[in-house]
Amino acid sequence: MQPDLTAALSMRGIEKHFGSIIAVDAVDLDIPTGQICGLTGPNGSGKSTLFDCCTGLQKATGGRVFAAGTEVTGWEMHRIVREARVIRSFQKAVVLRAMSVEDNLVLAGQMVAFPGFAGTFAIGAASRARIRGLRERAGHVLELVGLSHMRHAEAGKISFGQQKLLQFSTMLMADPRVILLDEPMAGVNPVLIERMIENINRANREDGITFVVVEHNLDAMKALCHRLVVLSRGRIIADDTPDVVVRQPEVVEAYLAG
Amino acid sequence: MGSDMRLRIGGFAGFLALLLVAPAFLGEYQVHALIVSLTFLLPALGLNLILGYAGMLSFAQMAFFGIGAYVSALMAMRWGTPFWLNFLAAGVVAGVVALPLGIPALRLRKYSFVMCTLGFAVIAQTLAKNWVSVTRGDLGLSNVPRPMLGLWSGGIEIRGITSYYYLALGLSVIAVLAFLAIVSSPAGRYMIAIREDETLAASVGAPTWRYRMAAFVLSGVFAGCGGSFYVHYYTVISPTIFDPYYGNTLLVIVLGGGVGTLGGVVAGSFIFVALSEVLRVAPDIRMIAYGLLLIVVVFGCPEGLLPLLMRKLRRPTHAT
Hints:
The complex is a heterodimer. By secondary structure, chain A is of the alpha/beta class. Helix content of chain A is 40%, strand content 23%.
């Protein structure tokens, strides 16, 4: 099957083997531009591994990945982020704990403000003006997500849910086309889950960012996603609107078995 | 944050003022001890960059220091080049040597990188011992010319201990400012991010390998420059400069003073070199006492002396 070159993200035959264990088994998946696509499934069904293979954190055993028509198969993570503007979050390592909230955002914005390697060593007036611009932008983003009162706090000292919101804000600083979120709501209290959903919706609506969200919280997924894909044992077993998917017998069975 | 910055700038300015007037109150031997401290400051800044900012432990620092010393000495002896040129060349050559070493070494895991730099230090010493036609082997090079401060030939020759001291101080100030420029640039922010979490740094678009390489090469440049000053001060150089003793001293300065901080490494250079000199009053137990003091420092303040001091200073302002 030909890849969909108009899709924000197009995966063809993605496979990942760990010895004799097959974590991801020939997955074909197209994420159209502007969609919020949920990805769920029992533990060990290959969701995070699929993310890793699309974002360069792990090398896929086989298959190809395209981002907005450009093949990114085998690229290193920093290049996929910079050139394809596909950026991801992580389940555990969330923010740089020793840096301030604002500096976390400035760091993420640097790749936009300083595209060249040599330019990042500059400390002249032009360089400082760009950093000032990033701080200003960081202020806007923090206001949008509702973290501006935490601006100067040490990132490791704010609550876990706030850290997840912070991680989400850092990704917005990188002018992304696609954001892959790995369990953004796990371990987060209901109030912050509400706020996370609002923020994802706004970024999708106003900035046209495409989302792929791995999450176990099915209520949140129903509220958020246009489409829900279910993985089990490395394969796609369901792919439809959330309301339809959660009623499919194979999905119910996979969850009970998992 | 503002008061922190003022505290730092004030601390540095006060310390510099003290150093500027120090020779007027000190004897020749104490000024010599200060010069030795300043000599270690440059390679220590380099180690701080690779260890404290890029998070990689390197034992190659003293090898780069030795390479810089040999390059600078040979240039001065063979071609009579002025000090500034020897000094820059020593840094550049050390940095250029770091590049091919870093290409394989930085691809390795952290522990393998340590072994790789250790191996490099051994090779550098073996080369200095056995490349007799250039280095004169174990005899080393002696009668290295004193620094000539002039544009090309001639100029002022640095002879007296006080002149040496002010030359060392001037070079150290330049090195500290250069270090500050590197770590406060956007590249410095990437390096800190890489030290804290390499995957997270890559996920916001930092080409981590290139920044670790940059930190490694720059650490070599700092060390090479330090070697250049060293050789024109002592006017002799032999393969013993590659002995682990010197490398260990650097580690003590950086880890004991405060890894990943600038003030800590500056303070560490003075405290630990001076400490080693003070203990000369009891030569029999000198190294044992030094070792014991290090153990006390590690238990008393595992992050280093300066971070401990800064916390103590900050506490009163927090209470208000």
